[in-house]
Amino acid sequence: MSPAGSKNAPEAKAREKIDALLAQSGWLVQDREDMNLTASDGIAVREFKLEKGHGFVDYLLFVDGNALGVVEAKPAGYSFTSVEVQAKKYVEGLPASLTAPQKPLPFAYINVIFRRGNRHEKRRYPRRARRTRSAITTMRVKTIAKNSRRPKE
After folding, report:
1. Tens digit of pLDDT for each residue in 21-49?
2. Which of the four pLDDT bands, split at 50, 70 and 90, describes residue 152?
3. How many CB atoms lie within 10 A of CB 120?
4. What is the DSSP secondary structure assignment for residue 126, as one 8-state letter?
5. To the nearest 5 percent, what fractions of the chain are helix, strand and coil?
6. I need a surface site. Which of 9, 11, 14, 69 has the fewest CB within 10 A?
7. Rounded CA gap, 87 and 54, in Å?
């Protein structure tokens, strides 16, 4: 069972916006049922079911067929700390059937959507960041691929 819910739910509307941001950043967005990891260098798979006890992640990111990260989006009002705990659970819950150059996954993006008037604004955490912009706009396929190849410090 998928956690998608109604197409009119706030999560579904936010997902449409996130899909567009991912596409602008070079990701090919796919549904889990239609997943084809050879279709593009960067694939973002919606509502991916993880290992038992780890739930569904909003998006699982693949670069060159390897799982590298997750994207979790939440509306305003969620505690960043609770979302961080959830994201940690997601990066550790990759199914054994998938390949990943590093476990747990090295990238976890959290997008919290703030509502101001009639427009939604996405802020990149941590709040101390100088510029406010969507985390998704900073996660281009080539950037993640390059950063995943860096040696651990």
Report:
1. 899 889 999 999 999 999 999 999 999 99
2. low
3. 15
4. S
5. 25, 30, 40
6. 9
7. 10
β-pairing, 28-31 vs 107-116, is unpaired
What six digits make up the tokens of 28?
Answer: 């090919």
Paired strand residues for 63: 42, 66
Buried b (16+ CB within 10 A) or exposed e, 30-59: beeeeeebeebebbbbbbbbbeeebebbbb
* Of the candidates 152, 136, 140, the residue with the CA atom closest to the CA atom of residue 103: 152
Q: Please state, in angstroms and rounded to a whole number, the distance separating the CA atoms of residues 59 and 48.
A: 6
Cα–Cα distance, 139 to 131 (Å, whole number):
15
* Distance of alpha carbon 64 from alpha carbon 128, whole angstroms: 32
Determine the Cα–Cα distance for residues 17 and 116; give it in Å rounded to an integer.
16
Q: What is the CA radius of gyration of the chain?
A: 15
- What are the residue ranges spanned by the domains of the chain? 10-148
The model's pTM: 0.77
